[in-house]
Amino acid sequence: MPPIPAALDRNGTPLRQDKRRIAETFGKAATTYDAAASLQQLVAARARLGLPELDLQASILDMGCGTGNETRALVERYPEADITGLDLSQGMLDFASQNPFLSNCHWAIGDIEELPFNEEQFDLVFSSLAIQWCECLSEVMAQVHRVLKPGGWFVFSTLAAGSLHELNAAWKSVDDKPHVNSYESLSRQKQRVASSDLSISSLRQQTETLYYPSVTHLFKEMKALGVNTVTETQQKGLAGKSTIRKLTEGYKPFVTEKGLPASYQVIYGVLRKPSAF
Ligand SMILES: C[S@@+](CC[C@H](N)C(=O)[O-])C[C@H]1O[C@@H](n2cnc3c(N)ncnc32)[C@H](O)[C@@H]1O
């Protein structure tokens, strides 16, 4: 397989190491992602409930579009619109751009925190389960504000503190290293949104829980999604049978009739850039 090209920022500079790693990990998962993305589909469907009515030929950005699943949903909802999918990962964009249902879309490689677009370009920015990968929510808000037209909408989902708390607790029976991504609380994220120049139409948190027959099944799904992120240690840990045994033990207090729960604290937001007058 040829090496995946490094994503560039808007000045053509290669991305920093950690963002390159995110891009590469997602790129490698592009062909397995859709079959494993049950949480992502559930969350995106809920996020889409916040989509506004738009003029027929509106200009729309799907930020962190991944394989283009949600870009397709946007095409179906706004068939005449001019739709662009942006992602950090060339592998994801290659996959999305081959989808025949998305042949009229535009594609852009880039970083949400440095959007490669001009001011006031979009009527709607949509983003599902992508901005939690960014470093600074305030920067995300500033970028979205910049590229939205006055009166434009930002509809998104992201993760909050407490996500995967069962897995986090189970890892404590293995070691004290961080193995699960941490996120800011809803109240902290609310503060960041409130201090942006976007006005809040709605912003709420909901728990979404998936169940797995075993720790191995959970890890396989995370790997297929490209979200076995975080630290090298987690990946090394995955290989070891004794680690899996300890994790299974650590998970026991949470096990239900449905299996091992993996719960996510999901924030759903609908924001608007104030009109010029
Ligand atoms: C969990 S996937 C979600 C994809 C899609 N929105 C969906 O709901 O199926 C997250 C996507 O965000 C992209 N991503 C992560 N950080 C990003 C960043 N800073 N800028 C642009 N895309 C990013 C990843 O490459 C990945 O494709």
Folded structure, characterized:
The protein has helices at residues 17-28, 30-36, 38-48, 69-77, 90-97, 137-147, 165-171, 186-194, 215-225, 232-239, 241-251, and strands spanning 59-63, 82-87, 106-109, 122-128, 148-159, 199-212, 260-272. Strands 3-2-1-4-5-7-6 form a seven-stranded mixed sheet, sandwiched between helices. It has one domain (17-272): Vaccinia Virus protein VP39 (Rossmann fold). The protein has 277 residues and is of the alpha/beta class. S-adenosylmethionine (SAM) binds at residues 22-23, 26, 37, 40, 44, 64-66, 69-70, 87-89, 92, 111-113, 128-130, 133-134.
What is the fold's blueprint, element by element?
Layout: H1 17-28, H2 30-36, H3 38-48, E1 59-63, H4 69-77, E2 82-87, H5 90-97, E3 106-109, E4 122-128, H6 137-147, E5 148-159, H7 165-171, H8 186-194, E6 199-212, H9 215-225, H10 232-239, H11 241-251, E7 260-272
Parallel strand pairs: 1-2, 1-4, 2-3, 4-5
Antiparallel strand pairs: 5-7, 6-7
Helix pairs in contact: 1-5, 2-9, 7-11
The structure holds S-adenosylmethionine (SAM).
S-adenosylmethionine binds next to helix 1, helix 3 and helix 4.
Let me know the number of strands: 7
**Tally of individual helices:** 11
Apparent shape: globular
Q: How many domains in all?
A: 1
CATH topology description:
Rossmann fold
Main sheet record: 7 strands, mixed
What are the secondary-structure elements, in order, as H or E?
HHHEHEHEEHEHHEHHHE
The unique ligands bound to this protein are: S-adenosylmethionine
Class derived from helix and strand content: alpha/beta
Q: Mind telling me the CATH superfamily name?
A: Vaccinia Virus protein VP39
Strand order of the largest sheet: 3-2-1-4-5-7-6
Percent of residues in beta strands?
A: 15-25%
Residue windows where pLDDT falls under 50 for at least 5 positions: 1-5, 229-235
First-residue to last-residue Cα separation: 53 Å
Helix content: 25-40%
- Mean pLDDT equals 90
For the record, the CATH architecture stands as 3-Layer(aba) Sandwich
Radius of gyration from the alpha-carbon trace, in angstroms: 19 Å
- CATH class categorisation: Alpha Beta
